[in-house]
Write a structure and sequence with these properties.
Length: about 700
């Protein structure tokens, strides 16, 4: 049993991140009114320190500063320290990150902001070292300077805080610009921006930072552009990027799964943490690319990622965990490092040399001096070197992978952040549902359905309010717009996978609840509900960061519901969302790729398809397979069993009167709820979809 020298108020929390700090000598408080009342009573500034459980630099700053008793004593004496899990409270994180950006600083985590007792940010930064280094003052110096200012220059602090708060409140919701009429030019400008920054050698896009992040939402926009225009380079950018990522160090070549980002432009040296949302969106992009190209590599990649998630990121109850840490035994990446001697000992000389050649494991290991060479040769070249066929090589490598995994599984694993977040789970539910219908895999459907059932059984309170987080039997925090919107999308994906009407009903119910809680009749939807905690600002965000924004996901959901015939309000609300961000889509579309996907859908001649038939019969399955396996980003599909179902017609207006003709499986292809002559063959269906 571990005996701790210190404990603080965080010991009562469920968040893995907050619990990591529960035994710091810093007297941490959870976010809440009690902390702010304490600051007022003790006449102190608050330190609001924001991070998440798998954040490497959060761990570093904890070891260097928050575990230092002397520094903690000073911090406790002069400030009220507050810890926030940004994944539980994205609303709190957003306000303080916006404040940091307004101060002209680059964002990141840990995010350490100093705040007045009235909740107004003053100043701050991200990581602060224990001693002056990296061009930054030490954390102790910062604390001393602020304590001195609070004592001697308080009016200046309040003046700056008031100005900053006013700025944040003005920027919380996009200002109306007369709602300029958006057209395809916004997409073309964004594609041009992608083209200009594209790394033709390594794939991906060169950002201002040295790090390179998975650009899955941007890749899906490029696929839509390719579908619309036939511009080959748009598809080439996608394929180069996905293939380089899947072959590079950012992808776990043994266990599967994508890391958060690469620390270089070649996708070689990862920052080893794995996030559920990254892997979800990666699967979305891989599936769509497979639908266009039919390249089996993309199906292999999808199955590899989903196998990893099912094995390592799924609870016994079927929910998906949030993340895996980069650190193991306090060392970043230690879990993933191999020496060549180690590989040869495990696999034997012959197979070991093949594995080392294929994965570029040198005498210095697989992450040599923070630089791992990419595998520059093709599979065929490596097979030829060892005088075997590519197929023989793949069989040998499959066996090698299994043996190395057995050894790796005995190492100390990185921390698993086992909380369940609604929007992140919804992203992965969609990933499994889409994979199930495209690859005709019933096991994926089972996994998606179990996770969705878990959400509806465990993440609603007694009043029927959706909640944000579940962990260790506790569901907490009112869900945000992103949770409602992405879960609505997931339910629609489940409906189009299973044709179980209950999922469509849930999507409609969620959409009504979203309008009740988040609707803004004059602009985009608010990120927080009208029943949520009153904070400094109530934001309405459209930026597609690590996951689609709530407004982007909601626009997609509403456009799909509208195409199913559920009335003009859905279409109007989606248009209001998109038009509210018109200046952003026209000028900075790369950062709004998911919302541009919604614009693409709304500008396209959306096809509304009804298949009327009997599941399991060949003629029905052929029509469904055409819709499920091919790339049709601008359609919705509904199914009517046995040629007519009054309940289906009641819930989905599009299906009304769409009966089987001549007792044969029948396809109706409609636009704006007006249908073409029904057809029975795949060839005729294909013609109508073209």
């Amino acid at each position: 049993m571990t005996v701790y020298s210190f404990s603080n108020s965080l010991i009562h929390e469920k968040s893995p991140y907050l619990l990591q700090h529960a035994h710091n000598p810093v007297d941490w408080n959870p976010w809440g009114t009690e902390a702010f009342e304490k600051a007022k009573e003790e006449d102190k500034l608050l330190l609001v320190s924001i991070g998440y459980a798998t954040c490497h630099w959060c761990h570093v700053m904890e070891r260097e500063s928050f575990e230092d008793p002397e520094l903690a004593a000073f911090l406790n004496a002069h400030f009220v320290p507050v810890k926030v899990d940004r994944e539980e409270r994205p609303d709190v994180d957003k306000i303080h990150m916006d404040a940091l950006h307004a101060l002209g600083q680059q964002g990141g985590w840990p995010l350490n902001m100093f705040v007045t007792p009235e909740g107004k940010p003053v100043t701050g930064g991200t990581y602060f070292p224990p001693r002056p280094m990296y061009g930054r003052i030490s954390f102790r110096e910062l604390l001393e300077n602020l304590a001195l200012m609070w004592r001697n220059e308080r009016e200046k602090i309040f003046s700056n805080a008031n100005q900053l708060a006013s700025h944040l409140q003005q920027k919380a919701v996009p200002a109306s610009t007369g709602l300029s009429q958006l057209n395809w030019e916004a997409e073309e400008q964004t594609v041009a921006q992608f083209r200009e920054s594209f790394d033709s050698q390594h794939g991906g896009f060169n950002q201002q930072l040295q790090n390179k992040f998975p650009p899955s939402m941007g890749l899906m926009l490029l696929l839509r552009h390719y579908k619309r225009t036939g511009e080959a380079h748009s598809l080439e950018m996608v394929e180069k990027t996905l293939q380089k990522m899947f072959a590079g160090g950012i992808y776990d070549q043994l266990g599967g799964g994508l890391s958060r980002y690469s620390t270089d432009y070649e996708w070689l040296v990862p920052h080893f943490e794995k996030m559920l949302y990254d892997n979800s969106l990666f699967v979305w992009a891989l599936i769509e690319t497979f639908q266009i190209t039919k390249n089996p590599l993309y199906e292999t990649a999808v199955r590899d990622v989903l196998t990893y998630v099912a094995r390592d990121m799924t609870s016994l109850e079927g929910a998906f965990f949030s993340a895996e840490d980069a650190d193991s035994e306090g060392v970043e990446g230690k879990f993933y490092v191999w020496s060549k001697a180690e590989v040869l000992e495990i696999l034997g000389t012959e197979t070991g040399e093949l594995a080392c050649a294929f994965w570029d494991i040198t005498e210095h290991g697989n992450f040599e001096g923070n630089n791992i060479p990419n595998r520059p040769r093709s599979d065929e070249d490596v097979a030829e070197q060892f005088r075997i066929t590519p197929e023989e090589m793949r069989i040998k490598l499959c066996t090698a992978r299994e043996k190395l995994m057995v050894v790796r599984s005995k190492r100390v694993r990185p921390l698993l952040d086992d909380k369940v977040l609604t929007s992140w789970n919804a992203l992965m539910i969609s990933a499994y549902a889409r994979a199930s219908r495209v690859f005709d895999d019933p096991e994926f459907e089972i996994i998606a359905t179990r996770a969705a059932d878990f959400t509806f059984n465990n993440l609603f309170d007694d009043a029927g309010r959706l909640l944000r987080r579940w962990r260790d039997g506790e569901a907490r925090f009112p869900a945000y717009l992103c949770d409602h919107a992405q879960l609505t999308v997931a339910c629609l994906d489940l409906y189009e996978t299973t044709y179980d009407l209950s999922w469509f009903r849930k999507a409609v119910e969620l959409s009504k609840e979203t309008n009740r809680l988040f609707r803004n009749a004059d602009g985009p939807y608010y990120d927080t509900g009208n029943d949520g905690e009153v904070l400094l600002t109530r934001n309405a965000e459209g930026y597609d960061g690590v996951e689609p924004s709530g407004n982007s996901s909601l626009a997609h959901a509403f456009l799909r519901l509208s195409a199913y015939g559920l009335g003009p309000q859905y279409y109007g609300d989606a248009q209001r969302i998109i038009q509210s961000f018109a200046p952003h889509l026209e000028q900075a579309g790369v950062s709004f790729s998911a919302m541009l996907g919604g614009l693409h859908f709304s500008l396209s001649a959306v096809k509304e398809v009804v298949i009327s038939g009997r599941r399991g019969e060949a003629d029905t399955e052929l029509l469904l397979d055409e819709l499920r396996r091919e790339y049709h980003p601008n359609i919705v599909v509904s199914f009517v069993e046995n040629g007519g179902n009054p309940e289906t017609e009641k819930v989905i207006p599009l299906t009304s009167g769409r009966a089987m003709v001549n007792d044969s499986a029948t396809a109706y292809v409609c636009q704006n709820q007006t249908c073409q002559i029904p057809v029975h063959s795949v060839e005729k269906l294909r013609e109508l979809l073209a």
